[in-house]
Amino acid sequence: MISSDAILARLMQLHPKVIDLSLDRMHRILGALGNPERRIPPAIHIAGTNGKGSTQAMIRAGLESAGKRVHAYTSPHLAQFHERIRLAGSLISEADLAATLEECEAANGGEPITFFEITTAAAFLAFSRVPADYTLLEVGLGGRLDATNVIENPALTVITPVSIDHTQYLGETLADITGEKAGILKRRVPCIVAPQDPAAREVIEQKAERLSAPLRIGRQDWESRREGTSLIYQDDHGLMDLPLPNLPGPHQIVNAGTAIAALRELGFGRIEARAAVTEAEWPARMQRLQYGPLIEAAGSCELWLDGGHNPAGGEAVAATLAAMSRKPTHLICGMLNTKDVAGYMRPLAGVAQSLTAVTIPGEPNTLSAEETAAAAASVGLSAATAADTLTAVQRLAADQPGARILICGSLYLAGQVLRENG
């Protein structure tokens, strides 16, 4: 059988653009496949700028602790494409992925369709054939015209914090971007809303009012906060004193609250909430690397990995580093040319001693190491370049023994690190 990688390579050639937001091609291919999106288990649809993946992981941990079988769809992948499609708790097998992709390729008949669209169709097809209790769907980009937004009647929608990102596709202002994210709202379907900037909240509330969609809004209908070594969650059902999230960073308090609010809306309680914050796993989100060639190269240094890549992501990483034990911190960073690089780096300038820039291997939209270093220098970071991540780690380990090294920036760099580090 031909490998899924070979099929995926073919699918990349079906459209001249990587991103071309529209639902027309999705409706066409799904119709050719018999509309599998109408036969998937009840969907929880998640949009937002930051925190979608972490929130989804926490919701999944909570549902699975209740014995529920959960499908999950996320993007992009890190080490292998199979990560995008989880069937009833397990990553899709190579045989099932290859067969499903080939079936979608045949149904498409060579017509123009983006890679994300046809692979999303493949996910719906796979979800429709495996029994489960819930389907978690993470939006790829935006919401209104995202390929996942063909679900007509989800059980629940979720909007994580919205900030400025992907302005070339979603609009220049926070209100414009929020309008696209709020496109996942459906008539009379409840929505869990993370705490938002007032401008974003207003857009969501106006859209929800037009659709009679009940909202459960953070800091109004529910609240999550840290008190000492506890996460306190409170809503009109009462208060829960829970452990802190096992996913590190102050921003995970909000993500945990959003996940718990979703679980509460679905009828689950304290046991599932506790599992959500203690059992969730989500790689490349302030993940401490523990083994592999990079750990050997790091010597006495701590080695961490994070894929936050926009200004809000930079703020979250900076807050996480500030809350950690005091130790000199040095960054290794690779970025794409589609991102606000200086905006991402500006919050990090106050918590890191240096940044070593690398070019992301095999990524056509990568910034060169020199360009990334120039952006870092422009916001006050001491910047250098290295030929690759391993070289950067080795140099820092030799020059800064016992320091904290954070590999950060693009998720594509994070994926390459995870693959190369085993």
Write the layout of secondary structure elements.
Layout: H1 4-11, H2 24-32, E1 43-47, H3 52-65, E2 70-73, E3 85-87, E4 90-91, H4 94-108, H5 115-129, E5 134-138, E6 156-159, H6 167-170, H7 174-181, E7 191-193, H8 198-211, E8 215-217, E9 222-227, E10 230-235, E11 238-243, H9 251-265, H10 270-278, E12 287-288, H11 293-298, E13 302-305, H12 311-323, E14 329-334, H13 341-345, E15 354-357, H14 369-378, E16 383-385, H15 389-399, E17 404-409, H16 411-420
Parallel strand pairs: 1-5, 1-6, 2-5, 6-7, 7-8, 13-17, 14-15, 14-17, 15-16
Antiparallel strand pairs: 2-3, 3-4, 9-10, 10-11, 12-13
Helix pairs in contact: 1-4, 3-9, 3-10, 4-5, 7-8, 9-10
